[in-house]
Amino acid sequence: MSQKIKAPNASKGGNGFLWGIIAILVIAAVAIGFIVYNNQQHKVDNITLPDDKVDVKMTTDENAVTLEPENAGDDVPTVEVFEDFSCHYCAQLETASSGDLKSALEDGKVKVKFRFLNFLDRGDESGPSTRGASVAWAVAKTGDVDAFWNIHRLMMDEQSTVTRQWGWDDLANAVDKIGVEGDVVEKVRNESVKEDGVKVAQKNDKEVEKREGSVSSPLLYKDGKRFDPPTNPDQTLGSWIPVALEGK
């Protein structure tokens, strides 16, 4: 009777090789997962956060965040800024104007109403415009004017990364590091701030459409009258503060 002769260690060796491959793949997956998680946790540590102190009063009503001098008189002009956090020109305008605006506010020369839009999300309520509006509105509702000013600056000045690429977890980490107290950090993380953010942005979208016939940004109004910011020689937008204070 013929018999087949089997190498005694062939099967065992084959299984050992297979398990070795599986172990390597598992280790690699764990390592990649750790790197991704670690990078996500430390995105906020790899960027410089604004840390301004702003000596002004802040209120949130009529779908606007209003900043004004503590003892503003009736003759102080009110400027409305309609902006979308995904709008490239809005980011240019904020970067050019924030230093002048801070000085003008603290010197009692102007009031400003920030009105957030989300039309650039084109109906996608998970988009960057909605995230920006939701986070900014939620932070403003806490009454912490420094935190609002700094998260607003962060999302505009670092628009290409923070606003367009960061998710809710990343933004929650930034809100936390900026020093916002209470449950806002967790509400950003679990996206529950989005409901109010969407409502505010959509109402402001409708207000722009009512005034202009269509929605665009940025838009500036001084005491209800539309004006345009200056344009620099390189075609970027300049600070709107000098224009707003003309003839004051």
Automatic annotation (TrEMBL):
Top-level taxon of origin: Bacteria
InterPro entries for this protein: Thioredoxin-like_fold, Thioredoxin-like_sf
Keywords: Membrane, Transmembrane, Transmembrane helix
Residue stretches making up the Thioredoxin-like fold domain: 78-235
Compositionally skewed regions (Basic and acidic residues) per UniProt: 202-213
Pfam families membership: Thioredoxin_4 (PF13462)
Residues spanning the membrane: 16-37
Record carries keyword Transcription regulation: no
Coiled coil: none
UniProt region (Disordered), positions on chain: 202-248
Protein name: Thioredoxin-like fold domain-containing protein
Species of origin: Corynebacterium jeikeium (strain K411)
Lineage summary: Bacteria, Bacillati, Actinomycetota, Actinomycetes, Mycobacteriales
